[in-house]
Description:
Layout: H1 8-20, H2 26-46, H3 50-64, H4 70-86, H5 90-104, H6 113-126, H7 130-146, H8 151-165, H9 169-185, H10 193-217, H11 222-234, H12 244-263, H13 266-319, H14 325-400, H15 405-437, E1 445-448, H16 449-459, H17 461-467, E2 470-475, E3 482-485, H18 487-503, E4 509-520, E5 523-532, H19 565-576, E6 581-586, E7 590-601, E8 624-628, H20 632-644, E9 648-652, H21 655-664, E10 669-672, H22 681-689, E11 696-701, H23 705-715, E12 719-722, H24 727-735
Parallel strand pairs: 2-4, 8-9, 8-10, 10-11, 11-12
Antiparallel strand pairs: 1-3, 3-7, 4-5, 5-7, 6-7
Transmembrane segments: 325-347
Domain Response regulatory: 624-738
GO molecular function: phosphorelay sensor kinase activity
Amino acid sequence: MKVWSTNVKKTIIILLFFCNVSFGQEKTVIHKSIDSIEEIVSRLIKNDSIVEARTVLDTVYKKYQHTKHNNFWVIYNYNYGVLFNSSAKFKEALKYLLESQKYSNKTPNKLYKERISGMILRIYREVNMYKELDSLYAINIVENKKNNSVAVFLNYTDYVISCMRRKQYKKVIDTTNKAILELDAFDFTDKSKRIIKSINKVVRNELKLHLAMALIEKKEDYKKSYQLLGEVNKDSLLFVKRERDQYLRLISQYKARYFYEFDKNIDSVFYHQSLSNKYQEVYIKKLKERASNASDFIYEIAKNKNDTEKLSIINNTNIQLKKNYAQISFLISFLLLLAIIFSAYVFRSYSQNNKINKKLKDKNEELLAVDEERNQFFSVMSHELRTPIYTIQGLIEIIENTTNETQRKEFLKTLQFSNNHLSSLVNNALEYSKFRLGNVRLNKDAFCLDEMLQEIGNSFSYQLHKNNTTLHIDISPRTETNVIGDRLKISQLFINLISNAIKFTVNGNIWVKVIQLTKIENTIMFRFVVKDDGIGIEKELQADIFNGFKGVNHINENTGGSGLGLYIVKKIIEDLYKSSIQLESKKDKGTAFSFDIEMKQNLQTITTINLKGKDCEKILKGYHILIVDDNKINLMITKKVLESAGANCIIVDNGVEAIAKIHKNNFDIVFMDVHMPGQDGLQTTQKIREFNKKVIILALTAVDLEKNIKKIGQSGMNGIITKPYKKSDLFQKIRSYPLK
């Protein structure tokens, strides 16, 4: 419970005054003490001293509970409504406010009429009773303007906040502009300093903040919104103390959106988002303290109410004492039972509150950790993604202006390397996200281990040449390389491990070894080893290199990297293959990673497609193919790739045209994009299957397979080819379906 040290003296004087006044002075005291009660209760609520404010009201109530003066009941019920509103008990608050309104209507001057209506409007806002809010708002505005009352601006503010919640941003903009103009024109000459500060400054600040928020939501006048955010941030001390951290969080959040949507300054986005998160933490902490005070307040009310009930029962029992002793004994026993039950209830509620608070604390710590990891993820990935993107942009301009064919080939090699690096970063980021969500599974593909490793090695030729490092692929004799497994996941393992080895190996060697440990029927256990003679890893850093962003401590300023590669390697081996990865490393001696993986032998022969020479031009000769994709560039690329292998292609950019083409033509294969505007690929395939069950339809898409593979199969598609794809894989897939 908070101590309101600055108000102790004044509060005690007021309480003693109320407790000692004579009945004959009652009317005068009630009339003179209205402002005193209001001032003390208001100040205590602002300091979150909820229980103390209740004590003031209840002390007055005990003295005047039998009074017939309506003014007292107006003040008493109004302030109790304010107390419950501050404790987020809106149903109870509305009950007291309506009671106060009833007594107010009985007073000659309609005491507190504007205050009560304004507070009821705020309750409607808090509980989303928008129909009632709109009706009362119109009435309040008319009354306020008629009386030239400053309460009109409080009603404007509550209405604006409700419109923001309803996403009625146009109304927010119109209302705030109107309110600010009226504030500028309002005459505050005869108003107190407290009124001037709370209305002309605090309310003005809130209106400007919501105007800035609405402009950004409507994507209108970003510069004006940023100027307004700067002004309210500069005057942040004018905000109500209880809500200041929440308003500062909103200012930082919308500044982050300004830099993201308009100014395109990613560093400022991260800075202001981080600031917003910090204010959110402070606000949540204070909110918990406030909730604790509110719990004490509700408990004290319940206790006080229960005590009153007990006294009433005891008085009734004394009256009946002479008539029936047995009844008295029964009532006393009943009261004791009630006390025991109530004590048990209070104890249980207290224990439950402790459990809930602990859960909230643990959850908050967990969310803060997730938030910190997310911020680190975006910070690292944004930095890493910029390098290949800037390289690609620069090389395109250089290649356009270079006429020397030798130089163009070298630039193209560098461009291909940057593209591969960018693709690897994106794949790692996506894989990291999937593992965090637990949304990863293994697929079954038929492939040759030796060919896969050779392709991966070739993709690193530029980096190997740049580092003057040699890659050795060593497959032990009598090792079965024609296997069935998840080629993409196995490729990711070797791409990340080889890439990691190249970073830390200059003028050296890298060895990739494949050893067949056992073969039981068609199940083969392989041991894979990736070893280098580079700089090695210091012993104290080895424990962290698989832990995502902690692994970046091993990455120095010369090598760079996101730190996700080895994390993904470990997750694939341990979570998907239920195996383990071993690390052996010595500083300046090199590093070796080894792991065992089980795969099935492929009993069918895999036909390798040669993409070099003139034979490539006839691989798909005779195939009649329809390509469906809403992206013009994708259509052009896919058509060129297939036609280069001899296929006859027709392209359309929507599902409706695709259905019409299939009605009129006899296609061997249809490549269908999954995500298209209007009628998507899944809906188009379902409609095609209504009249054509035989045509081969393949999904050519970049969607997340883990989430969409079931939907794709249910739609009637025969298979999936993911983008980006290798030409050999694409042609192999097409050749697996014979010509009609």
